[in-house]
Amino acid sequence: MIAICYACPVSHIKDPSLAAQGRLNLEIAEKRMDALLKVRERFKKEQPFKGLTIGMALHVTKETGVLVSTLRAGGAKVAITGCNPLSTQDDVAAALAEQEGVLVWAYKGESTEDYYKFLTAVLKAEPDITIDDGCDLVSEIHKKHMHLLPKIIGGCEETTTGINRLRAMQKDGALKMPMIAVNDNLTKHLMDNYYGTGQSTFDGILRSTNLLIAGKTVVVLGYGSCGKGVAMRAKGLGAQVIVTEVDAFPALQAAMDGHRVLPMELAASLGDVFVTVTGDIHVIRMEHIEKMKDGAVLANSGHFDHEIDMVSLEKGAKRKRRVRHYLDEYLLKSGKVVYVAGEGRLVNLASAEGHPSEVMSLSFCGQALACEYLVKNRGKLKPEVITLPPEIDQEIATLQLTAMGLSIDTLTPEQIKYLASWEEGT
Q: Which pairing describes strands 154-157 and 179-181: parallel, antiparallel, or unpaired?
């Protein structure tokens, strides 16, 4: 157990001696995040966050570290903790803890108790702006720290699960601060969720299992942006893909994309690898697990660890043992075994390093510019879930195209006039 004084205004990390490797990882990430670095250059000149504190509950990865340095360049003080007990990269946390104006409370393998105490530590820094991945920080404010609301300009939410929670809060009249739905940016959910989740999910599964995907049947539970990305990568690795859905339209999309669409009751006995990407609870239950093949692999790429009913699996298994890097074997009463990667938590972060830096550059441009938007519109925004103006999405996409050395066409005056007119037809 790590000794922690939560009342002390200092960072709490696993091992300060890891900082040298963390600095190297941050350096590598920066080389692949040119779009975000362009934002950082401008922030350094304009200082949009001078005198402000930004409280963050994000995966403490090398990419998040580059976002932290971008906000610091804009004048902010930063207090950060993790948003998932297994997603912190301890070397990066150590490197961030060295930086002036940054407080870090995070280590990989946090207990539930420490996880919530770390959220409280961030809130004790009295942030002016929040950045969340999953809505736990904002939820804690509304449950236990309402006194902070008059000071808070607003917050930013990174992921689908968090946006769903925020919209539920808004519907119930419980949301008391403006919240930017960064996940709704095209440059986030159609890039990060699709390309990032697809690649990093299999990175985590392969690090845990070293399994050959070609020739296997991969069952993808949920066909939103994340599920589409997972299915695409599975197919690209040579797998047959089955999709399970509860919504008719994405199920139709999955069929049109060439995947087999089945209820989980039928898919359970056919899959070799199961990946949950729904944002919902217990989409894989014991009734499904008992039907699975001997040696089936289960992984979650949704946000929380309850997409797979891990509690029932823990109770129902005759034996559990750790057999590889973040790979647990469960012996069922039938004599079959199933394997769970990453403890049922986010497999791409528990078993690997999360999304590649290039795609996180886009997402974190969205976070940085969302924070700037909140400051520019201070006092003008209602306590509701807000989508950024489309021109900000265009700015982010343009920055990334430039970073990739790509250029696009521009409309001619004739084309602009034509598109603005209703009079010309056939």
A: parallel
